[in-house]
Amino acid sequence: MKLLTLNAHAWMEENQHDKLKQLAAFINEQQFDVIALQEVNQSIEETPLSVDDLAAYYSADPEVVIKRDNYAYVLNGLLSDAYHWTWAPAHVGFAKYDEGLAILSKTPITATVSEYVSSIQDYDNYRSRKIVGIQTVVDGVQSWFVSGHYNWWKDEESFRGLWDRTIELLDPLAPAPVFVMGDFNNAAEMRGEGYDYVMQSGWSDTYSNAAVRDAGHTVIKAIAGWESNAEPLRIDYVFSSKAVEVQSSTVVLNGKTGPVVSDHFGIAVELEL
Questions:
Q1: By Cβ atoms counted within 10 A, which residue in 70, 129, 159, 208 is the most buried?
Q2: Coiled-coil annotation: which residues (predicted)?
């Protein structure tokens, strides 16, 4: 099983269309089974798509309207083989986008989850946070894959409460394997904060369990939300609800393994259930 997670920073990148094509080419080459994306934007003022345009789309929320420039939709159209996918918005992003989360899957989606994990649920407040997940069968095993984009440990609404709510939502999905993938805004290097809290909750870090792994850093400079950062950080993860056999965890889309397409690098994980 091959997984990819990436904070896409959608439509905010210079040379965005070129980078989108580069990301599609990388996915075509690597053939990931499931892809989790964060900061997946669509213009609020853009034209809605018709039902006929959304053959591969599985709705996680019947009230969601997919616009013509939805980043996940455009990306999927560039892939050699279209993925099954879902998307849901969490809040207004960068003053002009519906900012949300997406999951793309090679295999058909059989169920979804789309819920707020923050108590703040003001669509105009970027601290309104959701998770979006799918159920699908990969390598003969029915599993859940969830995309999340979380607050910082020291925030108006701390990561701690968001993770507690995430566990509350995902616990009923057991005993199926569950993977939470995404931008956690909590550095593994910081003791006593978000990363340690996830570990103490009984979840496994596929990076730590990988037989082969690199430094794991997905942010190496100052970016939005980390404006004062001057050191490499590991803030993007693939966590699993139970320990699994992980062959490798690799930083990708970093200019070494794949082109740089976002202000975050991606994480590719290869594992067996």
A1: 70
A2: none
> What is the mean predicted confidence (pLDDT) over 220-228?
66
* Residues 79-123 pLDDT 10s: 999 999 999 999 999 999 999 999 999 999 999 999 999 999 999
111, 145 in Cβ contact below 8 A? no
Query: What is the identity of the amino acid at 235?
Result: I
Cα separation, 265 vs 234, in Å, equals 10
Strand order in the sheet with 97-105: 84-93, 97-105, 34-43, 2-7, 266-272, 245-252, 210-213
User: Rounded distance, CA 27 to CA 33, Å?
Assistant: 10
| pTM reported for the whole predicted model | 0.96
CATH number for the domain running over 2-272: 3.60.10.10
Residue 178 carries which side chain, given as an amino acid letter? Answer: V
Helix or strand run (H / E) with residue 77: helix 71-78
Structure tokens at 192: 């006593």
Cβ neighbours, 10 Å, residue 39: 27
Q: Which helix (H) or strand (E) holds 72?
A: helix 71-78
Which neighbouring-strand residues pair with 192? none
**Helix or strand or coil: residue 270?**
strand
Round to whole Å and give the CA distance between 129 and 194: 16
DSSP 8-state code for residue 109 = P
Strands (E), 119-203: 130-138, 141-149, 178-183
The domains of the chain are located at 2-272
